[in-house]
Amino acid sequence: MHIMKRVLILNLVPNTLGDSIIMTPMFSIIKKNYPSAFIAATADKLTKELWVGNGAINKIIEVEELSTIGDQNAGMLKKASYYLKMFFGLIFKLRRYKFDTCFITFPNFFMMPLIPFFAGIKNRIGFTYKGSYFSFLLSKKTESKILFDGYFERHIVDSFIDLLAISGLKFSKKDIVSNIDISKEEIMQAKKKLGFKGRLISIHTLSKQESKNWPKEKFTLLLPKLAEKYKASIILLGSKKEFEYNEAIRKNNPKIVNLCGKYSLRDVGAILKISDLFIGNDSGLGHYASSVGTKTITLFGASYPAQAIPIGKGKTIALFRGNKEKIYNFYKKGDINLDIKAMNAITIEEVLSAVDKLLS
Predict the structure, then answer these.
(1) pTM recorded for the entire structure
(2) What are the pLDDT digits (tens) for 203-215?
């Protein structure tokens, strides 16, 4: 096993809040094994903001092209040109840092091994998978065992841990915890901005996939019950695009506040930190809440908890009423109705029972 002095985490996944959070145990485990190592990670604008303050990362290298690559409205030709621009730009940028080790995280771009190879990084650690034409350039390699390779019951974090394991790094189960650091100043500012007293429950009603969304009607009935039973203020979190959707759920209830698109990602982290509880679908904000230490309830139906349950410091309850043999129907069969049915199976009473366990 070689000594790691200058380490690069090559992450080229755009606009992924949850995956970026699940990746954080990599940083702390590498730093634990090599305390004096210089650790850098590539990130898009969103992930860079998320990782700010992580004590295990010495340098975050923003890859500006990822914002366009991750834009659903960008055309294929435009994305292809940005891929090429990113590819050559990164090689020249990374050569300046003189890294000795590179971990290639998600295998989402078959040309990824070429980047550390041409950047002169001697030790290149990554995955093999169908279509990994340049995996022969890897110094150490392991089979990719993530959702899109058919491993529906294996947690996403296990793939990152696979990379560390084949590199000889030592770790235990207690090291595999996602963590996002929120400063005391950020917490103080959040309390000042919100001005709420008493219990605070944060809610995220949507996700990137329609098949993972608990019905709007159920959230509409649930939230007033939470506000009344727990004497709590309810905060709706999400992007600017989610504001109108959540306004329909709020229905002018003064105990429910719609903050979708109102605050930065760091501000949202502070709001989650001061929340007594977070409830949401299988999405990035659930991982965010757990990673800052907040108690979390995550609703699963289209996906399976074993694969994506939050692994942060906050205690998590996963609610799942689907059939584990029939998850990801939209991904596997193009049938979104079966996934929606599984989400619908979760009852308001089940959610309230889970809240009781965490807040009583």
Answers:
(1) 0.95
(2) 999 999 898 999 9
